[in-house]
Design brief:
The complex is a heterodimer of chains A (336) and B (217).
Chain A (H helix, E strand, L loop, with lengths): L5 E2 L8 H24 L7 H25 L4 H5 L1 H4 L6 H25 L3 H27 L12 H28 L8 H30 L14 H10 L4 H29 L8 H25 L2 E2 L18
Antiparallel strand pairs in A: 1-2
Chain B lengths: L24 E5 L9 H10 L9 E5 L7 E5 L8 H5 L5 E3 L5 E3 L9 H5 L35 H7 L11 H5 L5 E5 H15 L8 H4 L5
Antiparallel strand pairs in B: 1-6, 2-3, 4-5
The chains are: A mainly alpha (336), B alpha+beta (217).
Chain lengths: 336, 217
Amino acid sequence: MEPIILWQTKWSYSLHVPLYLFFGGLTSGIFLAAVVADLMERKWQGAALLSKVSSYSAIVTLALAGFFLTVHLGKPERGLAFPLFFTNYDSWMTRGGWIVGVGTLLVLLYAALWYRGGAAWVRRLVGLVGLPVLLMLAVYTGLLLSRGTFVPLWSSKYLPFLFLNSGITTGLAASGLVGLVALWFRGPQPQTAHSVVRWISMAVALFILLELFEIYNFMTYLAGSGQHAPTGEFVAPKGGAHVYQYVTRGALAPWFWWGVIGLGLTVPLLLTLVEFLLDCLTRPLGWHRVLFTVPKFALVLLGGILLRCVIVWGGDLSAPLDFPPSVWPIPPISGG
Amino acid sequence: MAQTQVTIPFRESEGPQAKHAPARLKFYVDVKRCIECGGCEVACKNENNVPEGIARIRVVTVNEGEAGESNVAVPCMHCSKAPCVAVCPVDALYHREDGIVQVNKETCIGCGYCLYACPFGAPQFPKSSPFGARGVMDKCTYCAGGPEEPFSDRERRLYGSNRIAEGKLPMCASVCSTKALVAGDGEEVANVVRQRMAARGSGGGGWAWGTAYPESK
């Protein structure tokens, strides 16, 4: 018997929630880049500047995340007053509200310490304290969706890691971009000043490879769930296979293949390969590196947005109803 | 109007499951009896003045045009361990003592989290202004109104009718001509299910019976 497919339409094909999730993860990655660059200040030329501008950028991206989170609500004013209204601590949205709240304070404090100067160890300490909170923000964006236990695509097994990985990839790319802009405004730099951007470029490539591996595993899992393993807690036996078809061959296929896999991951990887080969075969690229890194970072950011779009839009397919009558809301004989 | 409460024996709920009230008032949808007449949908809309774009109950057809085609009316099932109640960040969704899952539109923030948690797609989020509240969730109330004063204009405007307070069953179940949609006390509903299943023999054609009890195939 085929499962009943329900099509939900609350968020369908809107950009608010994908952008909220994207900017949430992006902030995590930018903060990670800022803290790592701060710690490596003495080893990498230009790392201090990159850390500084990244810490400022994290405020902007977090504000954008908050903006898109708020405007998708039916009652935005109640969402803004979340410490008063969010009372159910079993809900990941409540936990996420506090993660965003605490994360915002730490991001602001870290940026303020960069702005005012002073002891570097205090700033680094704040950064190290804030890092787990901000990384949890990226994980939370995956966990938030994973509570939709009847939505095959929102697997609690894969989404938190995928969104964390994507958050780091896009965050590093965004830091690289703002770092390049800052270096540009600072004026002509020696070759070594670009070493931090080179490091980030290589790190982005590594995380892209990891992300491709995770997406492959995720899709394989969905495709195989028709035979044995249901995706979510209560998803119908063939729910995973249905959503796999929807994402890879259905209405979302162009977004997935051309957007996420093609432009967002494969092309940046190829640009890294060319950049690497030119570095090895000819003289170091210097400022010409931007011909590869800028489009690469921009495409990674685009891919991050499209990944969230595919995942959120794919959540419109819900396949819950083919599950045993024992979990239907019929009371047992005792009535208890 | 005088308030008339249905007498419902109270059952204590303690321990880790205290948040989830014991099963009380329930729906049962008999897929072998539903004829997809749409009477429940019309009756619900009429009784509660449900605006266009909101479906508090809808009839879903499975395997349409194929052998084994069946229909199932899908209202809010007022689950005992309701996932919507579990995920709602602001506790706008809650269980009444009689087990009905109710929404408080004065608290709901319209995030849509409950929609994706619900296995039945019960929560509704209209684009316009349903029941005078912008963007907050609306769903089947089991014809029990809302947390406002019973029979008040405000309750009628925000939530619809309150037949439970009048001692009546939900309108959809009351009008179901084949009694495919059964509503009432959980034990009585369960008795109806058992009688029908016993009359039909092993499995009784129950929904996904083979999934639950593969050895009975």
